[in-house]
Amino acid sequence: MNPRYDATQPEHKVRKKTAAKLSFVIIVVLVLLAVMNPGKEDFGEYAVNHLEGTLGVEFAGGITDLVAQPLVESFTIRENYILFSTFSIPDIQDGKTFIGDIKAKRKYLGLFKIIFIKL
After folding, report:
1. How far is 79 from 83, CA to CA, in rounded Å?
2. Strand pairing partners for 111?
3. How are beta strands 77-80 and 85-90 bridged, if at all?
4. N or C end of the chain: which has fewer CB within 10 A?
5. Exposed e or buried b per residue across 20-51, where buried means at least 16 C-beta atoms within 10 angstroms of its C-beta
6. Is beta strand 85-90 parallel, antiparallel or unpaired with respect to 105-111?
7. How would you classify residue 112: left for phi > 0, otherwise alpha for psi between -120 and 50, otherwise beta?
8. Taking the model in full, what pTM does it have?
9. Region of 37 on the Ramachandran plot (φ > 0 left; ψ -120 to 50 alpha; else beta)
């Protein structure tokens, strides 16, 4: 055997360390996603705050806590995918929604309890 080929190559050590660090980071992010998966309460808070911004009107704190947020949560359909959730709510911008077209929905993707992306 040639001793030149038996020596460990330093590049392989660097690659193994980098791969181990990357794997660790990916595992930490996945665990955080699972632990911080948003629920209906988190989405209800986001939806009410977003509604206030859209209308340009700020609700009084008591009204938001007692009426608007529970109302939004009651209309919300959550689909839990462990690492993230999707939320569906009726599209209240459409005048037909409450008259008969209940299929008009807005969908959102929820991550980390604070990030909601309209789909």
Report:
1. 11
2. 115
3. antiparallel
4. N
5. eeeeeeeeeeeeeeeebbbebebbbbbbbeee
6. antiparallel
7. left
8. 0.71
9. beta
Residue 39's pLDDT is 94
How confident is the model at residue 47, as a pLDDT? 86
pLDDT tens-place string over residues 55-94: 555 666 666 667 778 888 888 899 999 999 999 987 765 4
Alpha helices per DSSP H over 1-119: 3-6, 10-35, 40-55, 61-63, 69-75
Nearest to 84 by CA among 65, 107, 51, 50: 107
Token pair listed for 115: 């990030």
Q: How many CA atoms lie within 13 A of 106 on its CB side?
A: 17
Most distant pair of Cα atoms in the chain: their distance: 84
What are the Cα distances from residue 114, in Å, to 29, 39, 84, 86, 109?
15, 10, 11, 13, 11
